[in-house]
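Example A, followed by Example B.
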Amino acid sequence: MRVLKIVLLLAAALVPLAGVYVLNNATLVAEWLTDTGGFHTGETLPSVTGEEVDGGTIDTARYRGMKFVAMIAKIDCESCKSSYPVLQKWSELYPETPLVMIGVGGKEAYGEVKRDLQFSFPLLAADRTAQDRLRIKITPVFYAMDEQGTIIERMNGYRVKDFQKFMKRVGEA
C-alpha cells in the first residue's frame, strides 16, 4: 500500500511538470508527435522552378553557391501572415543571405501580398509539382542552406523570438 501511495504521489508531481514542458516547448512536442514532412538538417533541399508572382520564372538552383533561406508559406496560413512584416527586415539585416519565399496558394493573391508589403525578395508560386518535390505538409517552414544547398537550420512555424534567433544564427553562420 505504501508503494502505491509513493507511485501516485510521483505521478501527481510529474503530470503538471509534463504539462508545463509541453506548453513551453509546443513546437518540439508537435514535431516529435507528427510527421512535419519536408527535409531536415543535413539533407539537400531540391531545387524547384516556378512562376515568380511578379512575372517570369525562378529556379531556386540559382542560389547554389551562396547561403540562402527558403520559406515555405501558404496564402491562408495565419502563422505565415504574422511573419510577413519581419521578412523584409531579413533583406535589410542580412543582404548577403538571400531569402526566397515559396508560396502555396494563388499566384495573384501572393502578388498582392508582395506588392502591399513591398517585398524585395522573390516569391515563387509553388505548383503541385513543386509542392510534391518539397514534400510540404506544414507551413511556415524556414530552411537555411549553405553554399552546397545543404540544410544547416530548419525552423517550423513562426514565433518572433524563435525567428530572431534563427535570423541571428543563420546570418552569422
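Example B, a separate protein, is given below in the same form.
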Amino acid sequence: MKKIYLFFLPFLLFSCIEDSDKVNLERVQGTWVHESEHEDQTIESTFTFHSNGTFEQQHRRTQGEGDYEAGILSVSTGSYAFEDGELVVSTQTAFHAEVYENPPATVEELIESGDYFKRTVRAKISFEDNNNAMILLFYECHDIITGGLSNCIEPTPMRYNRVEE
C-alpha cells in the first residue's frame, strides 16, 4: 500500500504547484497601484494584469516640486506568468519621457525606449488584506552599468493596492 502512495506523491506535488500558479494568475488580474515619495516628488506606479497573460505598467509623477513637473514618466507592456510561485514579468515594449524633470501629460508624447528596457524580471509575491494588497519583491539585480561599478540597490518589498473597477 505504501508503494502506491509513493507512486502518486510526485503527481500530487506537481499538481499542487500548477494549481498554486493558476490561482496566482487569477488573483493578480486587475489593476494595482503603488505610490512612493522621493525627495521633491510623488511617483505612482500602476500595473494592469490582463487575463490573456499580458500587462501594462505606467509610472506617473503625480506631484512634483522645484524642477519636477507632474506627468507620465514611462509606460511598458509585455507578458507575465508564474513559475514556482514567483511572478515573472517580461517587458517587450517600453516608452519613457525624453526629459525626466518635465514629462509629458499623455502617453502619446512618450518616446520609444528601444531594446534598452526589454528584460525579464522575477518577483516574490504575496497577498494581504483579503487579496486587496499585493506585495512584490523584485530581488534580482539588473545592473545597467557594466564593469566594476554596481548600480544595484537593496531590494525592498513594494505594496500595490488593488484598484476597484
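On Example B: Residues 2-28 form the longest helix (27 residues).
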